[in-house]
Design a protein that fits this description.
- With 187 residues, the chain is of the alpha+beta class.
- It is built from four helices and 13 strands.
- A hairpin with a 2-residue loop joins strand 10 and strand 11.
Length: 187
């Protein structure tokens, strides 16, 4: 789309859309002609929500696991550990052996973000996940139990209570039925 050209013969809207969609951060594009001289382009962007370590690089993904970029610089998103990566290609969903765990972890991160909670790191374990509020303050449990506790704001209340007491170290164990316990020692 170039200034000064005719908006019908000088602007191939399908070509513009195709070029924009090559960027992995762009989810969708809508283009309209507004007479007499305007081409309106609306873009819906993907949001980076997590990063996975791959060698010395970080692979940044969106909420569906689509690879947005690879970088050597640590991004300011939740770091996910404990995955066995089989394929990484920008613009394509990340392929891992633990597909269900990845899906659950991305859902957990999205739930946390939408309920005013941020985890610096999520480590997948055989028993569930360890979701780090701080380096030494960990929420431990299954992704489903942690998500349930986030939705009913139990985790947020426990973390706020610990911060009020200047406690920044320990394990918050979350199990079903809204049961949450705290152990001040970190393994």
């Amino acid at each position: 789309c170039k200034t000064g050209r005719n908006i019908f013969w000088g602007s191939n809207l399908k070509d513009i859309e195709t070029r924009l969609l090559k960027d992995s951060y762009i989810e969708s594009v809508k283009i309209k002609r507004k007479l007499p001289d305007i081409v309106q382009i609306s873009v819906k962007e993907r949001t980076q929500v997590a990063a996975v370590m791959y060698g010395n690089n970080y692979v940044v993904v969106d909420d569906s696991g689509l690879v947005l970029r690879k970088t050597e610089v640590e991004p300011q998103v939740t770091l996910v550990q404990g995955l066995t990566i089989s394929k990484i290609e920008v613009g394509v969903p990340i392929e891992v052996e633990e597909k269900v765990k990845l899906r659950q972890t991305l859902e957990l991160i999205n739930t946390a973000n939408s309920h005013d909670m941020y985890f610096t790191k999520v480590v997948m374990t055989k028993a569930g996940v360890n979701a780090y509020v701080l380096e030494n303050l960990i929420c431990q449990g299954s992704p489903q139990n942690i998500m349930e506790a986030l939705k009913n704001e139990s985790v947020q209340k426990v973390v706020a209570s610990l911060f009020e007491k200047n406690i920044e170290r320990g394990v918050i164990k979350i199990s079903g039925g809204e049961y949450i316990s705290f152990n001040p020692s970190v393994e």
